[in-house]
Amino acid sequence: MSFFIEVLMGGLLAGLMYSLVAIGFVLIFKASGVFNFAQGSMVLFSALAFVTLIERGVPFWVALIATLLLMVLLGVSIERFVLRPLVNRPPMTLFMATLGLSFVLEGLAQTLFGSQVHGLELGVEDVPVAFGSVSLSKLDIVAAGTAGSLVLILSLLFNRTRFGLALRAVADDPLAALAAGVDLRRVWAAVWAIAGVVGLVAGLLWGARLGVQFSLSLIVLKALPVLIIGGFSSVTGTIVGGLLVGSSEKLAEVYVGSALGGGIENWFPYLLALLFLLVKPTGLFGQVQVERV
Amino acid sequence: MTTQEEQAFLSPAPQSRRLDAQRFAGRTRWALGGALGLVLFVGLPFFGNDYLFSAILIPFLVLSLAGLGLNVLTGYTGQLSLGSAAFMAVGAFATYNFQLRLPSLPLLVSIALGGLSAALIGIAFGLPSLRIKGFYLIVSTLAAQFFVEWVLTRFGWFSNDSSSGVISAPHLAVAGYGLDSPAGRYLLTLFIVSVLTVVARNLIRSQTGRNWMAVRDMATAASVMGIPILRAKLTAFAVSSFYCGVAGALWAFAYLGTVEPHGFDLNRSFQILFIIIIGGLGSLSGAFLGALFIVLFPILLSHVAGSLLNGVIDPGQLQNLQKVLFGGLIIFFLVKEPDGLARLLRTATRRFSLWPLGR
Amino acid sequence: MNRTLNTLLSLALAPALLSACQKAAAGKSDPAGSTQKVDPTLNAATPAAGKQPAQYFPLQSYRVGPYAAGGTGFFGGFIDYMNLVNVRDGGINGVKLTWSECETEYVVERGVECYERLKKGLDGAPTAATNPLSVGIAYATLDRSTTDKIPLITINHGRTDSTDGRVFPYVFPLQLNPYSEVSAIVNYIATREGGPEKLAHKKIVTLYHGSPYGKETQPVLDILAKKYDFQIKHLEVPHPGNEQQSQWLEIKRFQPDWVILRGWGVMNPVAIKTAAKTGFPVDHVIGNIWSNSEEDVRPAGGVGKGYISITTHPSGTDFPVVGAIKKYVVDAGKGNLQDAKRFGSVYYNLGVINGILNVEAVRIAQGKFGKRPLTGEETRWGFEHLDIDEAKLKELGAFGLLQPIKLSCLDHEGGGRIRFQQWDGEKWNLISDWVSADRALLRPIIEESAAKYAKEKGITPRDCSADSEK
Predict the structure, then answer these.
(1) Residues of C whose CB is below 8 A from B56
(2) Is the pLDDT of residue B40 over 70?
(3) Does residue A133 sit at the C interface (CB-CB below 8 Å)?
């Protein structure tokens, strides 16, 4: 029984880390309707930048601030040079633009920061902490806490501030928001900047978990089922989706996977997401598209 | 008089001019086509060398075929798919198994059966498209992508229980003629791709093609009009997967000679998607142009770097720069010319045929 | 009309462009795009067209992408060794070595394209052998290499059954093939447990990468488990191996005595970290030949201390040949490594050893065919008659670095011995002497697999007794 709990808890914590990446997607989708496939590359880019600075001897907090600024700059430039020219294009075009963008970022990251593997120490040791008969990883707990607080902060931002109001207006109907006097460009730039920062947080935590190298950008493939189950435009949805995906994935791998020969973790979340969609075509918390004839 | 009758009365010429143009076009078209066929089928095999066949022409043809398949699904029917590589894998492994276990089957039949197997899998993963719309559909094809990869790796039966899971191409022969040489493999690929291109063109011109485009453009209106949406979508998935399956079989047998399930991973799906984005969604020639670009771009880039910047940039950095350039070009195409290379070429052709006048 | 013209034009454009490309590829003196990594001025040894006889090694290298760490280290060592031979010895009997790199990013079709582009040679210098250091590329170029008569070297990896040179005359899994690797690991575990009899009722888990490379050794491990009566469990980690929590929790439940890690790329540090995270003792995890480098364990941080892995060669710089490279190549500013700290690392030394083996094979072939640039067919003979004993190792300055190795027509592996090393947080320390694989047990399996391949492909195995000429 304790084994089951251990797997479950481990899964929940891992799921929260997936949500961390998924939040970046949701932000941008909420504000501009773009599915930003380049989020994974942004995570990689930020982690590599941070680690390179640290290895050059820059102190931790200075490097953090510097990378933060870099990501803000990156987010704003992406909005200005890639998304702005493509305003009003169909969503497919925008998605493909972000695909191209992910290539650019990956190539740029490796050109600027090299392609070696780096370790990342955040001051939290990745050792098991015992809770009764169940032991959980310290790093995972810290990461889960960070993801949770990030969601809380973002929720507060969206629901309690003027900026959040402007953001929700833009997400709902850009033209009406424009008519009401909301500066679209500023909102979009801000959203992309925040997404960059979220990418940095995800990059740091995942980098501490895996080491900073190329495969970091593949995390986005784990975030996708989370988004689909939670709905593309809901921050709460990413948490719920993350918990669901993480726990079911791990439980399935252990209990079902052993019967099937293992290795089912890659496709199980997608199958789950698919089944979810058949029941709820826009995810748990997503906006329902109503089609009128 | 009605406007039409007025027009006919005032300018009788357009009608006959058009007929003349058509007749002329018909003759020119056949002449050009014949010349091209001669070059491709006879000239190149004589004058080409190993490198041209093995590293350029065959991947170009195979990727064009896969691009055609994906174009049918995404370009003409509007269903975004990120699982084309999975269908290629099904085709490759199915053809291998048919050839292996039923050795009396001719090669072309095995390839066709491989394509059909891929079509069946395509229909299975296309079923959710009836309920899920828009962007969320990528989850179905992504599920296909990962699931197929896992199945082919997990069950050794598919790779004849070879411990490594890699399948090796059997001896290729059609009607007794050995086709193992690079020129032979090229001819096999060229033949199959030509036939399937003609079929695709005819399909798109037919009612089926029009149904597909109706689904893409205005599904609700189409449904109201009585177009069978279910059948159209599933046909699109089936045809697209068939093409991808045949492309996969050719990739394994005519191009690489061996293949493992990871050779058809998500990166391959993205590659095919890029082919049709750059080439032009919803156009046949787009698949060819896109494949040409994808195959030649890395080679040309390293050529240029080699001659201009001899030894200054190391190959790794060059690779990174290529990635950046590639991504940049995709963005550029999407901004400037969302209909891809096909439209660019069409515009260029039109300007050329009117040069030096503007219109 | 325009539409048809458009389609036809685009289809016609294709062959035109492609032929132009092909002509450029064939005709140019610098074969298409393979940029020389080494600054052309410094490698004065590289001859211009037709001026001096040279032997060519095409390098299908990977310096970017997820496996860049291995590629930069390996090809760095290989190139540095070739530079050493050119600078210090003036080449092999006066024949200088020349090479060019073609980036594959570990992608199979790029490796194939590089192979096709570079197989004809460079500036008239014929190709000696290809060294792609990639299982996928090796598989894809296997048949081509045999048709084109160019040896395919797959050092420390490859198709295990290519050890049987009768069916695979042009493929050489030098030093260690996957079956030998696991057999030797099991033998080592036996010694750690106190003898082969003590293996009975022990539990071993293989954590393998979900790919052909990872699965290759499962049958052999099952056979060994039956022979020594231990329990074996195979757990797959799907590529790329970012998430291994469930696998390690299962390991925790199974409570094995040892875990054999058959990883690749990011799977390695994640495995070590997750082992520590779930409380499995890291010093009972044994990494295989592709989980044994500094780059594999360093990202795991402090928890990697105690991790064991195998190696066919020690890391470090105390070997005369490595010292010579330092003196003649690195200190002269011609070193290939971008990060000088990696000098002497596991991958780097593997590259040096690969260089030694390739060069010695050419030298041996030159003894038979003449002191001139040799064709692939001739160097194949050299590889097959590779015989480096302890005396020769001392002469080469590689005693203790490279194991004595002797190839033959029947045996394209030649070595089959490994040593074990342990990570102390900073570097690898050797913790064992040479441990051999149980080659007698493995040979029938290899021959059976090779025979199956021969039957599938319609190849007649060579007769090794009639081997002396070819």
Answers:
(1) 18, 21-22
(2) yes
(3) no
